[in-house]
Amino acid sequence: MAFDLKITGGTIVDGTGKPGFVGDVGIKDGKVVALGKADGPAATTIDATGKVMAPGFVDVHTHYDAQVLWDRMLSISPWHGVTTTVIGNCGFGVAPTKTIHRKMIMQTLEKVEGMSLEALEAGLGSAWPFETFPQYLDTLEKRGSSINIAALFGHTPLRLYVMGEESTERAATPDEIGAMKKLMREAMEAGAIGFGTSVSVSHNGYAGKPVPSRQATVEEMDALVSVMGDMKRGLMQITIGREFSTRHMAEVSRKYGVPVTWTALLSYLYGPGGHRKQLDLAAEQRRTGAMVIPQVSCRPLNFEFTFAEPFIFDVMKFMNELAVEDAKAPGTRRRAYADPAWREKLRSEVTPLFRNWWDRVIIAWAPSHKELEEQPLTEAAAKLGKHPVDLALDIALASDLQARFRMAVMNFDEKEVGELITDPNTIIALSDAGAHASQLCDACYSTYLLGHWVRDRKVFTVEQAVHNLTQRPAEMFGITDRGVLADGRPADVVVFDPMTVGPGPLKRVYDLPAGADRLVSEANGIDAVIVNGKLIRRDGRDTVAANDTLPGRVLRNGRAA
User: Fold this and answer.
1) Interhelix angle for 155-163 vs 174-190, to 10°?
2) What's the pTM?
């Protein structure tokens, strides 16, 4: 047989968790047509001797909903071997959106997902080519992308579409819930793979108001999930909060036969050792017939933040109130930060989440104090005879609140993280790719898993790690034609060097629309990335251009048409 592309001599790790074996992969017309032995000529041949050939990685927690409309390459996910991405997480997205609500949607993404409003306005433009969710999927399909996209239907734009600005203020009426159910069914019929929402206290949108999904009642949530139950497909993804607890998740999962995955179970989220109770609960829920799956991260949750938009503080009531006041009267933040009484509030905050957090803060960028950059805040403060709060706010005020600080918020305890990522009832996810671009970069989670947890820590075998990056998330999210290497399946393939794979250091670039900045990480050891049979990356460089016909597909109902 003649092949379009042939990869030879590598170790085939097919995604199922089975032991790898040395062989070839033959690709023709976008599909795998030979696995193990591929005799015959090929238009392109890649020698993978000493390398691993695996299914393309499936990243089920991204926020590329807006970025894909100006960045069809979906950078940086393909750099790290990701060939399929799920958008619409946490209930955020850009459809359905009426023209009058576009500004509010962008302002919400700015606040809750740390996106630059200027970049959103420049990237999305003034003439959006869609209003409804089906039109949005049609737009993605028409424009194309470098990798595959599956979409959850977002609760926040849904509520805003039906209820207007009151969606941030109150519960929905029965008629409004009925209208939302109709749109939910329309989205699922158009190809959504499920429903995304959030009740997290940290998710505040424009002007500091709760995002619309936080005002939903349990009855509203139940009604929307019931649509998926009736259709016998789909899953619910939710960012957790008090109003819709894991108990409610288990109830709707059992009632409608719908999997529920929640964000995120992290080390120290419930204090030292607190994750074990949640792991036990997940196991018990599985035993009693509920499919409730916590999402976990394999990386420390490092945030870079400024005191102009200190997202990580939004769980503190007085900080969120300050954001609301500053939106009404700009300058309120600066006055508060200079006030000794207000500073004492911040010093005295001792919630479990922030206990001893000052010890984990690094001064990342301080134009007024260059000599302190990359120093721990507590050490720098001790040298200067100041409290860390006072030094941080002094540095912030001296830079017009633009100075940057970096903190490991959670997931910094390696032992606990190891327990989380190896538990059979969790799923490794939470890259957040496309969101918080100037604050963190976890889109490199796949290469970090393979480098740190496989090669360095030996917590997983290569086969186990690849399974957790491919077949397992694909099956859990109802993505039925990705995640394994098999004859006749779409040829999404990543070739990597197990001895060198890993993420490079973070660096700040200014390549978003309007010159906005973001943190990126180059990938080491990713030799080739193939999507639907087309080579899109080779030796760390794109082999296709953004204006080419790109091979990614919209996975409607979890598969390409």
Assistant:
1) 130
2) 0.92
